[in-house]
């Protein structure tokens, strides 16, 4: 797997440091709100797990599985809910945790859905932000790193289901995904 990586952008240590920083800020912002932290599966699960351990206030977690990529490197634009929430968001302060915000199409749909379900507030925390590809006006409230317009994998992000277990975020060599 490591041989398929063109460049490591963020090391395990970089990710741990930014996760701690984000957790500290979220702790301050949500100190009296008991947020519902929603992990967008599958990519955000590693980040969310580390993030909630850095949040020092009462919070609950839940999961949504949304698909807009399939096995492609580009979003299809079609957002499909594969697994919906188990908990109600009505009257709750919601924090969506994402691995990466790319075009913003998927996140926009999720935010609209949660607002229609009468969440008290909806904010977003993402490990990676890729504003160069943004098509929708979606701005994260908390962001770890800004990434270039490259195909990145690792620390939860995948290509055809692989590379999620890399402990860092790196750029996948184009020849790896050009083969498919």
TrEMBL record:
<dbReference type="GO" id="GO:0005829">
    <property type="term" value="C:cytosol"/>
</dbReference>
<keyword id="KW-0963">Cytoplasm</keyword>
<dbReference type="InterPro" id="IPR005904">
    <property type="entry name" value="Hxn_phspho_trans"/>
</dbReference>
<dbReference type="Pfam" id="PF00156">
    <property type="entry name" value="Pribosyltran"/>
</dbReference>
<comment type="pathway">
    <text>Purine metabolism; GMP biosynthesis via salvage pathway; GMP from guanine: step 1/1.</text>
</comment>
<dbReference type="GO" id="GO:0000166">
    <property type="term" value="F:nucleotide binding"/>
</dbReference>
<feature type="domain" description="Phosphoribosyltransferase">
    <location>
        <begin position="9"/>
        <end position="159"/>
    </location>
</feature>
<comment type="similarity">
    <text>Belongs to the purine/pyrimidine phosphoribosyltransferase family.</text>
</comment>
<dbReference type="GO" id="GO:0000287">
    <property type="term" value="F:magnesium ion binding"/>
</dbReference>
<dbReference type="GO" id="GO:0006166">
    <property type="term" value="P:purine ribonucleoside salvage"/>
</dbReference>
<keyword id="KW-0328">Glycosyltransferase</keyword>
<dbReference type="GO" id="GO:0052657">
    <property type="term" value="F:guanine phosphoribosyltransferase activity"/>
</dbReference>
<dbReference type="GO" id="GO:0032263">
    <property type="term" value="P:GMP salvage"/>
</dbReference>
<keyword id="KW-0479">Metal-binding</keyword>
<keyword id="KW-0808">Transferase</keyword>
<dbReference type="GO" id="GO:0046100">
    <property type="term" value="P:hypoxanthine metabolic process"/>
</dbReference>
<dbReference type="GO" id="GO:0032264">
    <property type="term" value="P:IMP salvage"/>
</dbReference>
<protein>
    <recommendedName>
        <fullName>Hypoxanthine phosphoribosyltransferase</fullName>
        <ecNumber>2.4.2.8</ecNumber>
    </recommendedName>
</protein>
<keyword id="KW-0547">Nucleotide-binding</keyword>
<keyword id="KW-0460">Magnesium</keyword>
<dbReference type="InterPro" id="IPR050408">
    <property type="entry name" value="HGPRT"/>
</dbReference>
<dbReference type="GO" id="GO:0006178">
    <property type="term" value="P:guanine salvage"/>
</dbReference>
<dbReference type="InterPro" id="IPR000836">
    <property type="entry name" value="PRTase_dom"/>
</dbReference>
<keyword id="KW-0660">Purine salvage</keyword>
<comment type="function">
    <text>Purine salvage pathway enzyme that catalyzes the transfer of the ribosyl-5-phosphate group from 5-phospho-alpha-D-ribose 1-diphosphate (PRPP) to the N9 position of the 6-oxopurines hypoxanthine and guanine to form the corresponding ribonucleotides IMP (inosine 5'-monophosphate) and GMP (guanosine 5'-monophosphate), with the release of PPi.</text>
</comment>
<dbReference type="GO" id="GO:0004422">
    <property type="term" value="F:hypoxanthine phosphoribosyltransferase activity"/>
</dbReference>
<comment type="pathway">
    <text>Purine metabolism; IMP biosynthesis via salvage pathway; IMP from hypoxanthine: step 1/1.</text>
</comment>
<dbReference type="InterPro" id="IPR029057">
    <property type="entry name" value="PRTase-like"/>
</dbReference>
